[in-house]
Amino acid sequence: MRVTVWNENRHEFKNEKVRSIYPNGIHGAIAEGIAENGLEIRTAWLDQPEHGLTEAVLADTDVLIWWGHMAHGEVQDDIVDRVHKRVLEGMGLIVLHSGHFSKIFKKLMGTTCDLKWREAADKERIWVVDPSHPIAEGLGAYIELPAEEMYGEHFDIPAPDELVFVSWFTGGEVFRSGCTYRRGQGKVFYFRPGHETYPTYHNEEVLRVIRNGVRWAAPVHGAKPVYGNAKPLEPVGPKE
Amino acid sequence: MRVTVWNENRHEFKNEKVRSIYPNGIHGAIAEGIAENGLEIRTAWLDQPEHGLTEAVLADTDVLIWWGHMAHGEVQDDIVDRVHKRVLEGMGLIVLHSGHFSKIFKKLMGTTCDLKWREAADKERIWVVDPSHPIAEGLGAYIELPAEEMYGEHFDIPAPDELVFVSWFTGGEVFRSGCTYRRGQGKVFYFRPGHETYPTYHNEEVLRVIRNGVRWAAPVHGAKPVYGNAKPLEPVGPKE
Amino acid sequence: MRVTVWNENRHEFKNEKVRSIYPNGIHGAIAEGIAENGLEIRTAWLDQPEHGLTEAVLADTDVLIWWGHMAHGEVQDDIVDRVHKRVLEGMGLIVLHSGHFSKIFKKLMGTTCDLKWREAADKERIWVVDPSHPIAEGLGAYIELPAEEMYGEHFDIPAPDELVFVSWFTGGEVFRSGCTYRRGQGKVFYFRPGHETYPTYHNEEVLRVIRNGVRWAAPVHGAKPVYGNAKPLEPVGPKE
Amino acid sequence: MRVTVWNENRHEFKNEKVRSIYPNGIHGAIAEGIAENGLEIRTAWLDQPEHGLTEAVLADTDVLIWWGHMAHGEVQDDIVDRVHKRVLEGMGLIVLHSGHFSKIFKKLMGTTCDLKWREAADKERIWVVDPSHPIAEGLGAYIELPAEEMYGEHFDIPAPDELVFVSWFTGGEVFRSGCTYRRGQGKVFYFRPGHETYPTYHNEEVLRVIRNGVRWAAPVHGAKPVYGNAKPLEPVGPKE
């Protein structure tokens, strides 16, 4: 399985705190953290040519992980269309945290993907609401993060095909924080935690969820659907 | 309830057969056919200024019905964005037949919305698979249309929130032909039948489904969600 | 619309506090609280003959509201089967709070319906996660209850067809507290709040949700499905 | 992965035709047909002690496959309860064809599971409506069976969590023929084809679907949910 971890990779250069938490970038921390047998992992980022997401790279990617925040607007529309096409063809997509506002996620969802937020070091408790789901494999009843940015409902997304996690925050809010979708032949998993100023992507349980997500989002190799004008399989009778 | 029936209104001018079936246009037939107490119905079409969908008209519309086919590309993107915004704010949307390929439906779905099709006068039998759904109110086990264009799976849409109808065609195909979605505060209903060369929108049961759909898609008057930076409702502790 | 409010009606006789909050019983408070034009409301309770749920009463009920807690085991199986049959035929069912463990809810769900709970006067904040749903009509972003029994995940139910509310509790838990299901031709709505020692069913917003739920769960008058051996609608060819 | 194939195993003894198609029983054909590396397969049937489903066998089963038809009523309720408990604990369950009326399936669904049927050698075409689903791995656009018993809508089941297949029949009907559900920690897959008088379980594509289903239904090893009275995770304040 070939995984590409994409990161905006800007906060790391502008904010000392972020750099100290993620000296190899958020992409580096995730790539290292989810490494295991059977995963071939590379990274890509915004300031590379074509954002590091050339046709060749995408053709060679089974699952793409996406982290972005301050520069969603700088992602070129033609690259977004290219990623979108690959998802519909079967590439898995894991969208993390502030990626909820990325062009690719909004294009796949068809809604604003807006939400409430607060940077105030809320405690987050991510409850498993579907213990039968492979993305929850190996977890306990919840994941506790001592401090995170708060995201609160209403989260303007389509009702998820499967709701795996719901978050509790100290400040009084809840959030649907683990949501799966199918789009075309591809699978999409949105996972909430991961604000850049907290060491969330060093948390073993968070990394396990991302790893589980990658396994779950792997492409299915069925027949490529054929669309358009179709001959009848049974006699229809004379055309009017 | 204020309903706007939108029609591309082009086939009616180019094709004698279509004109003879729908002398007042497809929009006219639908507007007349669904009329009942409590519905205030107007029509709009592509070649009007702003496609007849001005800010004022949309602000005054509870449910919009959409039929388009040969001129999807001529619908201006800014009008599509305007309709999209209104759906997310709560306006209901009924998308009919070849509207599956309209810009507004594709934007709301996030997929290609592609499908198989055939013009060969297949018989269509639209089976009710959810008899508990208000959109199926007053129907029998199925609606039979003696001749229609065939649409066949795979239909490249997100899994519907609710699947109300599945079609059978003589030529050997099936199709998810009644699908509901929620997007933002709005409700969307896709209903398959209605090729322009058949008198489908004169069929009493088809009209009943559209009428039921309008009732179902009516806006809900809850609080408008507030997004963005949110003060805590409970003490969070000092910000880091 | 004919509504029957069913209550176990036992705590009211054993506990002074409950009696003082609900002098006319929980059923009385709900019946009074949801009253409005177009609703014809009656009550029934456990210690009546046939638990007040005779064939005649059920045949005359469009939506049944169910509150039970300490005496689930005393509800006779044949009455449960009778209610079950009526739901599948189209009667709406609103299951409240500790009704999660009622025989009828478990029979409709097929799971244990177990959960975490605590009586410690947690504050509950019931967040609307689907503002497009008619059950959320007229609400703000959330309902706040200053003190309630806590119910926490994991809640062992099938994934709801629609998730309308998610609760936050002071003690650190979340709960899927507004869940809809379709079973046969009937609609089922589970709504969490309502422990007997709190005045929850005097809360205007809670009552509004129940009233909205009744409207939503109203029977749909489609054709009664016919099952069993079916003649072909099209020529099949000679039987092998 | 440990698989148990359960069969009623009665038609094979009463009907020469069935015996000639399945000389080792339907269970034998399935066990042989799905065999592959990594699957440890055993069989069990109705007339064994405890129907071959002892506590030990079930404890040693990851996925149970179920075929039954003429003797649903002879399956003991306590064995059904035992299987039910194991599904909720995480054992996968694949229910085939006439198993729609088995006690275990009805108990998990909460509905009658009734349907239309006809034995007239209809052709069946099983269309893939979710090409992203692992159960459809390796298939083309549809599976064609030259002759099968017809099952038609309305099928009285809860709306499936995922709809993978829809069948077309010569005689004019459609059927939701591949449906997934989650119940407790277990996964359930209903797959339609397999009437005893046709060689359906010798069809390579049908066997592939069952094999895919087994892989999909494998238990997830998350924490076992804990229910009941729960201590607060955060300070709640003094109990009233």
From TrEMBL, chains A, B, C, D:
<protein>
    <submittedName>
        <fullName>Trehalose utilization protein ThuA</fullName>
    </submittedName>
</protein>
<dbReference type="InterPro" id="IPR029062">
    <property type="entry name" value="Class_I_gatase-like"/>
</dbReference>
<dbReference type="InterPro" id="IPR009381">
    <property type="entry name" value="Trehalose_catabolism_ThuA_prok"/>
</dbReference>
<dbReference type="InterPro" id="IPR029010">
    <property type="entry name" value="ThuA-like"/>
</dbReference>
<feature type="domain" description="ThuA-like">
    <location>
        <begin position="2"/>
        <end position="217"/>
    </location>
</feature>
<dbReference type="Pfam" id="PF06283">
    <property type="entry name" value="ThuA"/>
</dbReference>
